[in-house]
């Protein structure tokens, strides 16, 4: 678990969940990093300032097997990669964050798939991007994409933010009156 921001001197608590990151790891290589980030499930993607953004992006880029490409002018991400026609497997470097307390925050979805239309009108994955944006304000934000596959819980009494791996489609408890969870959606391009 990570400790969110402490109460302010006036005694009021911050309305956000902040964690202190002391390191990032990309495919087993630890990167020096020290920053505080707001953990916000309402923000779709992760926003980091330099030097953390550049450290993470360049290390991720050095591990990727696909060719870097500009997939579309409308895509806000700087690090995007072209998939080969018919490619069905994807190696994405493993990413994690280490918090001040030593807990490891595993990032299971640091990327977003990019779809394109084939000549016969089918949508297929044509590439993917590191789904981290370089922030232009002084706040680092851990967005929803970094929380995918995790159950994140805040313990107000101890001011602790915790997480564990969780599949919300597989690990759903059904109600006794016959409800059943829907089928897990397939990966969307």
From TrEMBL:
Name under which the protein is recorded: Peptidase A1 domain-containing protein
Family from the record: Belongs to the peptidase A1 family.
PANTHER family: ASPARTYL PROTEASES, OS06G0717900 PROTEIN
Gene3D superfamilies linked: Acid Proteases
An annotated Gene Ontology molecular function: aspartic-type endopeptidase activity
GO biological processes: proteolysis
Organism: Aegilops tauschii subsp. strangulata (Goatgrass)
Coiled coil: none
Domain Peptidase A1 residues, every copy: 1-164
């Amino acid at each position: 678990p990570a400790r969110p921001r402490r109460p302010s001197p006036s005694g009021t608590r911050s309305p956000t969940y902040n964690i202190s990151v002391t390191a990032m790891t990309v495919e087993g290589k630890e990167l020096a990093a020290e920053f505080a980030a707001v953990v916000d499930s309402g923000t779709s993607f992760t926003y980091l300032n330099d030097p953390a953004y550049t450290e993470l992006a360049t290390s991720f880029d050095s591990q990727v097997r696909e060719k870097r490409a500009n997939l579309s002018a409308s895509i806000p991400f700087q690090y995007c990669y072209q998939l080969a026609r018919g490619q069905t497997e994807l190696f994405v470097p493993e990413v994690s964050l280490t918090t001040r307390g030593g807990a490891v925050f595993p990032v299971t979805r640091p990327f977003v798939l990019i779809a394109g239309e084939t000549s016969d009108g089918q949508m297929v994955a044509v590439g993917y991007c590191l789904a981290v944006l370089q922030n232009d304000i002084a706040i680092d934000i851990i967005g929803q994409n970094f929380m995918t596959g995790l159950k994140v819980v805040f313990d107000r009494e101890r001011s602790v933010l915790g997480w564990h791996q969780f599949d919300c489609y597989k690990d759903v408890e059904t109600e006794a009156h016959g409800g059943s969870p829907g089928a897990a959606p397939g990966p969307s391009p």
